[in-house]
Amino acid sequence: QQQRQQQQEQQRQQEQQQQLPVFSMDPDEPLDTRKVKRSVPAGMTPVVLVACGSFSPPTLLHLRIFEEAVPTLAREHKMAVVGGFLSPVHHAYGKKSLAPMKDRLSMAYLAVEDSDWLAMSPHECSLSGWSRTREALDWFASQLASVPVAVGDAPAKPGLIKVMLICGSDVVETFPTIKADGQPLWLPADQRSLLQHGIVCISRAGVDYPALVKSHKPFQEPGATVYIIQPQVSNNISSSLVRACLARGESIKYLVPEPVRKYILDNNLRDLPNWR
Predict the structure, then answer these.
(1) I need a surface site. Which of 101, 116, 168, 260 has the fewest CB within 10 A?
(2) CA 64/CA 111 separation, integer angstroms
(3) 2-18 and 258-266 helices cross at what angle (nearest 10)?
(4) pLDDT tens column, 90-137
């Protein structure tokens, strides 16, 4: 019986490994744009959403916020989302709860493997060290500038895709934060750049967004844009919640995509010291 269980465990690990590509660690590797749609209806602006984060591990809520943004951007802002990317942060970011980069890349890839428009980019992890969110978004914009998109019946042409950061409201709320040493948490130039790209912000109850905008000058500059998305589904699923469940030996089924759950178990990530 024990031997049979060991064989089954080995088979599961082999199957899991067969599903994973070899992630390029070449920083000059171009962005894989195969999932980016090449046409949008007339009168719509093509948009790609980028989520930068730890993804340690990626949860269903990480994916759900993309889906939440699509109808609001289309209905209220005439924007058609043609693609979305998870961009796991480099290990040099130094966050205590980061799983090894290989594992976070694998989990992020598996989380969106079955999506026809969401993908994972290993670019941030391929760099020699941590890069700021603004630098990551600029790279995505440069890569997508050459992707042709057809608007309505017009011929497809490059340079039409608008690249925006998608995040929870907790990120936007930290823009005015000043650290203990007197320095801003977010460099003013980075704030301006991200706001010029556009930020898609998933709102949460109790946050006064008009007051936040009025209290912080970069939000008021010409071209600065934050698109507030009122989520249809509210929950508290987070990576820290998933790690806490694992530490207590509890199930994480339906908290993360099923391939991610299997990867965590098959690769014994629950035993990571920084996940306990």
Answers:
(1) 116
(2) 11
(3) 120
(4) 999 999 999 999 999 999 999 999 999 999 999 999 999 999 999 999
Task: Give the per-residue pLDDT at 14.
Answer: 53
- If you search the block for the tokens 């010029």, which residue do you land on? 196
Interatomic CA distance for residues 161 and 163, integer angstroms: 6
Eight-state DSSP code of residue 151 = E
Please name the residues in contact with 273: beta carbons below 8 A apart, sequence gap of 6 or more. Answer: none
Give the three-class secondary structure for 189: helix
CB–CB of 229/203 below 8 Å? yes
The C-alpha R_g of the chain, in whole angstroms, comes to 20
Neighbouring residues of 2: CB distance < 8 A, sequence distance ≥ 6: none
SS3 82: strand
Positive/negative CA dihedral, 107, 113, 119, 122: positive
Which residue type, as a one-letter code, is found at position 236? N
Average pLDDT over residues 62-90: 97
C-alpha distances out from residue 253 to 98, 102, 108, 250, 260, Å: 21, 22, 16, 9, 10
CA atoms within 13 A of residue 188's CA, in its CB half-sphere: 6
d(CA 119, CA 88): 11
Length of the chain (residues): 276
Could you report the per-residue pLDDT of 134-186, keeping only the tens digit for each?
Answer: 999 999 999 999 999 999 999 999 999 999 999 988 898 899 999 999 999 99
